[in-house]
Specification:
161 residues; eight-stranded antiparallel barrel
């Protein structure tokens, strides 16, 4: 168990190292907050899937499009879960103006008991995660499709504060 925890922390540190190398002296400074809400679907159904498929998140976004965020949701098994992450968003211009891709990496907490093995590297209830998404933003408002590996998709809408 302890070895798995050390591996998970090391894995996430490696994933987050590009962010840490670009961090400014005031890592807590940000340009704006982005608030999102949404729902998710599974690629396949299971009798174990339970509860509302609702997600809410807040991201602190820097001018450089680096971000930190926290997502709160009930996982597929009705357990309250959290995803604490850092990431980078790449905006497209020209004929793709408004479109973006995003890649986040962080820790998911909340998969417990008989469902703790439903996410990889879940050690002591905490697992590393890498989550990509694609989206479109016009002015203050946006929408994203977040890819959850082989499990499903999250659809969100959001706005800048």
């Amino acid at each position: 168990m302890t070895l798995n925890l050390i591996r998970s922390i090391l894995f996430c540190f490696i994933l987050l190292s590009p962010y840490l190398s670009h961090a400014q002296d005031n890592w807590y400074d940000y340009d704006h907050l982005y608030i999102q809400g949404g729902t998710y679907i599974h690629y396949s159904s299971s009798p174990d899937h339970d509860g509302p498929n609702i997600l809410a998140s807040v991201e602190a976004v820097k001018d450089s499009n680096w971000l930190t965020g926290l997502a709160l949701f009930d996982n597929s098994f009705g357990q309250f879960s959290q995803y604490l992450y850092v990431g980078k968003q790449w905006d497209y211009h020209g004929s793709l103006d408004g479109f973006h891709t995003k890649l986040t990496a962080g820790f998911i907490h909340g998969y417990r008991d008989q469902y703790k093995d439903k996410i990889a590297f879940n050690s002591h209830g905490i697992a590393p995660a890498i989550i990509p998404s694609i989206g479109y933003k016009k002015g203050r408002y946006g929408a994203d499709v977040i890819l959850l590996g082989l499990a499903g998709l999250v659809f969100t809408v959001g706005f800048d504060l």
